[in-house]
């Protein structure tokens, strides 16, 4: 995510505000801790909370993202590192190297979520915390529908995420992310529109080549004659009339746009 790119229109600016709110939610968990941001992207969120951590490492499989992050954000306790997908190679860290692992908008991209979770569990110290945020399929997709984001492998409900995490952690708390009513309405209306538009190529059991090819074709048609603004022209979230404070990150009732999970490891000797 490039913040300048996402600040060019109201709907995308809201997505950016939700990303910031997610990192702000993590602040109380990372205070004075050794932190891994597992899938840090361009690093703006990693840097946002670095001042509260003992140390924080942002890792990503994208060379471009990590290069941009390292060139843009610096702090004495902050570093960025490019990694291989965990399906191919373990994380380059010793066992129990971190007190907190963050995973924001990553889980939906994984082809082998168990490999990812095993590495999370390996590098977490006893009593450590894993915070995961991923899109909530219950408000984005019809039952059984494949993701309409071509880069998402699978999207999860709150119950599905709890089921994924419980084999690896002693405690798992799952809730949702919501927002100010007008902003949530805008986001959910966008989701409804896109899921209907893309359903012909995302219906259950559609072959992957049909899904990705169809989604690429739909995106190309949408862009035709409507070039997207490449930058924000100096806009900020204030110019759009909202900010991360308008997003509620751990909410147990009501409509949800993202699933929020907070899981903890057992104490010393636990598996």
Describe this structure in words.
39% of the residues lie in helices and 21% in strands. The chain is an alpha/beta fold. It has a single domain, classed as Rossmann fold (3-Layer(aba) Sandwich), CATH 3.40.50. An eight-stranded mixed β-sheet has the order 3-2-1-4-5-8-6-7. Strand 1 (34-38), helix 3 and strand 2 (55-60) form a beta-alpha-beta unit. The longest helix is centred in the C-terminal third of the chain and has 22 residues, at 181-202. The protein is globular and about 45 Å long. The model has no long low-confidence stretch (mean pLDDT 93).
Chain-wise SSE layout:
Elements: H1 3-6, H2 10-30, E1 34-38, H3 44-49, E2 55-60, H4 63-72, E3 78-82, E4 98-104, H5 113-123, E5 124-135, H6 137-140, H7 158-165, E6 171-179, H8 181-202, H9 208-223, H10 237-240, E7 247-251, E8 258-264
Parallel strand pairs: 1-2, 1-4, 2-3, 4-5
Antiparallel strand pairs: 5-8, 6-7, 6-8
Helix pairs in contact: 8-9
Ends distance? 35 Å
How many helices? 10
Shape: globular
Q: Helical residue percent?
A: 25-40%
Q: Number of domains in the coordinates?
A: 1
CATH class call:
Alpha Beta
Tell me the radius of gyration.
18 Å
Brief synopsis:
The chain is built from 10 helices and 8 strands. With 271 residues, the protein is of the alpha/beta class.
Distinctive features:
alpha/beta, 8-stranded mixed beta sheet, Rossmann fold, 39% helix, 271 residues
């Amino acid at each position: 995510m490039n913040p300048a790119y996402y600040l060019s229109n109201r709907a995308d600016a809201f997505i950016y505000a939700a990303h910031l709110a997610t990192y702000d939610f993590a602040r109380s968990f990372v205070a004075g801790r050794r932190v891994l941001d597992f899938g840090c992207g361009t690093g703006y969120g990693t840097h946002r909370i670095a001042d509260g951590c003992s140390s924080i490492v942002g890792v990503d499989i994208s060379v471009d993202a990590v290069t941009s992050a390292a060139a843009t954000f610096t702090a004495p306790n902050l570093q960025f590192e490019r990694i291989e997908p965990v399906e191919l190679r373990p994380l380059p860290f010793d066992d129990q190297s971190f007190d907190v692992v963050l995973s924001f908008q990553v889980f939906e991209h994984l082809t082998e979520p168990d490999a990812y979770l095993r590495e999370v569990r390996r590098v977490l110290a006893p009593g450590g915390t894993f915070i995961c945020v991923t899109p909530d399929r219950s408000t984005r997709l019809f039952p059984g529908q494949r993701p309409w984001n071509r880069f998402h492998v699978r999207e999860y409900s709150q119950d599905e995420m709890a089921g994924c995490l419980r084999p690896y952690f002693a405690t798992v708390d799952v809730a949702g992310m919501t927002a100010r009513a007008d902003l949530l309405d805008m986001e959910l209306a966008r989701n409804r529109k896109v899921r209907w538009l893309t359903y012909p190529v995302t219906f259950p059991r559609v072959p992957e080549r049909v899904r990705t090819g169809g989604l690429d074709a739909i995106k190309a048609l949408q862009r035709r004659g409507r070039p997207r603004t490449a930058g924000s022209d100096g806009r900020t979230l204030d110019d759009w009339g909202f900010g991360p404070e308008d997003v509620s990150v751990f909410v147990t009732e009501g409509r949800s746009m993202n699933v929020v999970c907070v899981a903890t490891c057992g104490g010393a000797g636990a598996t």
